[in-house]
Structure formats: structure tokens, C-alpha cells
């Protein structure tokens, strides 16, 4: 069974701080990695994707990938209360179109 | 910005009835998907669809489920003879290709009574 693991949290950070979210995956054949944000009762919203080892930055968000350690992370700089949501890590395995999701980490940013 | 649209937003159905959930994927996308999320649980893959046929399906996607692209814009999920455990949020998603990001619609909340 291919798994994607995340700390369920909750993770609580003060406004303006850096939030760090982590994810590990079991399938070494995984090729593509995605972070989705899900507000309560809403659908997953794509915020970042990364395919290669290293860092990828987009505004306040940085995704980091280490395929050797089977580890993906998301950093949110200058966290805002509006960032409060559940962050879902999703992995696309090689040769598959199926996204495998983690349970998500609930982030709360306190004003 | 183009988006995936789903209807209805909420569907209430008696157990044993058939339901059809509808989706309009993003217009230039070629791959279409259905996922579901039972309350408090992970988002789970059901099926992917490309070139007018199912390309991959999960063990959840048994004979009670079917998908169809009846015209050039709609993509539907049919559940025959619904069960209580089918109650969930059902999300449609689409992507340009099989390895590109999948964009999700707002979902249909299905409640089976």
C-alpha cells in the first residue's frame, strides 16, 4: 500500500512567523509532488508543485523535495491568519495518474 | 481564471436510488478525475478518464460506479443503488496531461438517507 504521511497537527504559529509542514512518502517511483490547501468544507486548492530535488519558491511559499529521503516540505513565510487551513500533501506515482493524498496538517495562524 | 465546475453542490438521496454527479472540466484539459472525501478522512482517488475511456480506477470504484463524457463539455459520475457509506464529498478534477497538476472543482456533498 503506497502511503503519504503527514503530521496531523494542529500546528499553531503566530502571525508573521514561518510555518513548516512536512510529508513523507513510501513509493520511490513517485515523480510529482503537490501541496493543496483545503479550508474547512471546501475543495483542495493547488498552491505548489515540485518535480525535482531542491527548492521551489512562489511568493511566500517554498516547496522542498528530497527524493533520496522521500521527503517533501512546504514553508510558508510571513504567515497570515488567512493561511489557517488544512494543508494536503499529494503524490503522483510514476506511471500513474492517481494522486495519493496524506491526511493533511491543520495549520492555525494566530493574530 | 478557468475552473472546474460541479453540480449540484448538495445532493440528498434515499438509499438504493441512483445519483448522477456532474462536472464541467477546464476546457483545454484532457484528463478527468473523480475523488471522494468521507468526512474527517483523506481525499481518495476513484477514477481517471482520458480519450473517452477509463485509464485507471481504484478498488473503491466497483460495479456500482460508472463515468461518462456524454458530450464535449460534461463529465459525469453515476452511482447505482446508493449505500449509506457512499455519503461523502465528491470532487471532480482535471489536468492538461496525466503528470500535470490536477485542479479540483468545489465538490458535491452527497448525503444518503
Helix content bin of chain A: under 10%
- Number of alpha- plus pi-helical segments of chain B: 0
Mean pLDDT rating of chain B:
95
Main β-sheet of chain B: number of strands, strand sense, barrel status?
7 strands, mixed
The largest β sheet of chain A comes out as: 6 strands, mixed
Strand content of chain B: over 45%
- Provide the gyration radius of chain B in Å: 13 Å
Largest interface: A-B, 22 and 24 residues
What structural category do the secondary elements of chain A indicate? mainly beta
> What amount of the residues of chain A lies in strands?
over 45%
The residue-averaged pLDDT of chain A reads 95
Q: How many beta strands in the DSSP annotation of chain A? A: 11
Give the % helix of chain B: under 10%
Q: Kindly report how far apart the N and C termini of chain A lie.
A: 40 Å
Put simply, the count of helices of chain A is: 0
Oligomer: heterodimer
Task: Pick out the low-confidence regions of chain B.
Answer: none
Low-confidence stretches of chain A: none
User: Helices and strands of chain A, in N-to-C order?
Assistant: EEEEEEEEEEE
Calculate the terminal CA-CA distance of chain B, rounded to whole Å. Answer: 36 Å
Structural description of this entry:
The complex is a heterodimer of chains A (111) and B (113). Chain A is mainly beta and 111 residues long. Helix content of chain A is 0%, strand content 58%. Chain A starts with a strand and ends with a strand. The model of chain A has no long low-confidence stretch (mean pLDDT 95). Helix content of chain B is 0%, strand content 50%. The chains are: A mainly beta (111), B mainly beta (113).
Amino acid at each position: 500500500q503506497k502511503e503519504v504521511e503527514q503530521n496531523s497537527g494542529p500546528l499553531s504559529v503566530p502571525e508573521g512567523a514561518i510555518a513548516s509542514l512536512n510529508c513523507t512518502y513510501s513509493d520511490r517511483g513517485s515523480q510529482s509532488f503537490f501541496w493543496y490547501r483545503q479550508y474547512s468544507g471546501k475543495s483542495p486548492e493547488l498552491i505548489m508543485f515540485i518535480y525535482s530535488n531542491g527548492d521551489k519558491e512562489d511568493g511566500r511559499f517554498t516547496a522542498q523535495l528530497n527524493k533520496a529521503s522521500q521527503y517533501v516540505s512546504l514553508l510558508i513565510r510571513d504567515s497570515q491568519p488567512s493561511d489557517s487551513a488544512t494543508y494536503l500533501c499529494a503524490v503522483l506515482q510514476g506511471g500513474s495518474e492517481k494522486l495519493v493524498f496524506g491526511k493533511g496538517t491543520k495549520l492555525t495562524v494566530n493574530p | 481564471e478557468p475552473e472546474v465546475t460541479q453540480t449540484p453542490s448538495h445532493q440528498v438521496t434515499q438509499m438504493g436510488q441512483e445519483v448522477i454527479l456532474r462536472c464541467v472540466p477546464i476546457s483545454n484539459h484532457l484528463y478527468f478525475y473523480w475523488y471522494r472525501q468521507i468526512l474527517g478522512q483523506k481525499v481518495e482517488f476513484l477514477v481517471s478518464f482520458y480519450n473517452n475511456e477509463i485509464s485507471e480506477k481504484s478498488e473503491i470504484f466497483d460495479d456500482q460506479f460508472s463515468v461518462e463524457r456524454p458530450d464535449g463539455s460534461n463529465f459525469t459520475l453515476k452511482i447505482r443503488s446508493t449505500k449509506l457509506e457512499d455519503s461523502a464529498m465528491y470532487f471532480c478534477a482535471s489536468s492538461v496531461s496525466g503528470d500535470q497538476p490536477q485542479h479540483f472543482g468545489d465538490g458535491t456533498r452527497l448525503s444518503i438517507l
